[in-house]
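ok trying this again, last paste got cut off
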Amino acid sequence: MTNLITTYGRWIRRLGALAALGLCASTCGAVRLDPDGMGQVLLYPYYTVRAGNQTIYSVTNHTDRHKVVQVIMSEGRNGRAAIGFNVLLSPYDSWSATVFYREEGDPAMLLPGDPSCTYPKIDSYALPDGRQYVRLFEFDYTGSRRDAGPTRSDRTYEGYIAIYELATIVPETPPAVAMAPGSNGVPADCNSIHAAYEGGYWQQDRKTYLTNPTGGLSGEAMVLNVAAGTVMAYQATALADFRVDPADLPQGSRASVVKHVMPSDGLVGLSDALSDPATGFANAVIDLPNRRQELTYPRERAIDAVSAVLAADAVNVSYVNDASIGGTTDWVVTFPTRRYYTDSAIVGSTPIKPFTSVYPGAGGSENTAAMPVSYSLRDRDGRSVLVAGGLTPVVDLRFTTQVITVAPSVNIVSQVGRPLGSVLGARLAPVSGTARRDGGWMSLDFLRYQDGATAANRSMRPAEDGTVMLGLPAIGFAAVNYVNAAAGPGVLANYSMANPQRRTQDCRRNTISCK
């Protein structure tokens, strides 16, 4: 009887393992958007220090595992890195930082708001109260890395952020003990972590004491203007199962997809997606309104798996554009994977689908990076807001991150009252003088575009089964600000909020819509 019970137990456990393996193959074995905002990769569409703003962002570890994550801040024109560093998160730990600006000619600065261990140390400069900070850098768009964009320090003033989980740390090992917070919340021994990177066990073997990522990270950010009294907060976009191994059961027990690098080695990126180390494939799961698409891409096109997950044939936001209440809207649109398709240092002189223009190298002009996108405006009654002259409205989205401004003006887009004050602005066409323009919603059409005299559709390279995702991979939000002029003389009353960007998705297989 005992042998029978033992055999039965083993059989049940084997069935459970096989079931778990099958489940992982179809869900946790593919890059996907997490609807609850938790995953292995966090994408923050915007940070800025312009127009008196500063940006505060945070990452939270919702699991009982110690983690190594890498934080990368990129400038908004061509998506070149402005800073990258590793942060070690204890179980249930949060880490935050503030991006701010000090003096004319300086780059943006980064001030940690948490004592978690980082590598390299963030201790280049100190505020009068002793808090240490570091500057963002221009090295990735100057010198031998120069592109067509400006080389000034203020190029670091706005852009986007990505945080990647590199690995989990085995409990009770030297790094886990060193990063454990004491009663005052300060890690026990960050110096030993630095020593591990500088000649110690992580210099010798990057995977020492590490296992695969397990996810469970979330992130938030807010653009804060103390003088104006505005704050616009948003949630980071989370990619779950960015790097997984279907044989890693339970998840985080192997080190087969650990991507633990020091910033001096280079930075991780969205092209590092991996769904099976045995094959090198990168899978993507996309939930369309009536069906789930499971797509596979080869190792050399792993970036396409991420782009497929983020793809949209159209995006839209609500806007306020009302002079009577000082209402203005700045719409942030970021293409996190764009540089892998358009940066001339990566692709040469020819853009890769679905993008249609290259961001050129040194000596080139940003004008050749222009990417016209059709848009439409509707008022609160659902009527089209027509462009003056009856033209088809088009906006130029030439940058990795840009801000579309909708502000009260008859002929041009006004700079007055803009909550973000971006220089990466995308200008809208003047609207008809008789149109109602105080508010409504705006849509960008990522699918159709004009290629010379021919109308064409933007579409990605096909997945292994021939499925083609349509449109462009984009994230973003709308920053809305109201100025209450009736508050009284000398009284500033601003009200602000951030609205999420919405999207629609579609794909084609053998010319038939996936919908």
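PB: full thing came through this time. The chain has two domains: 28-280, 312-513.
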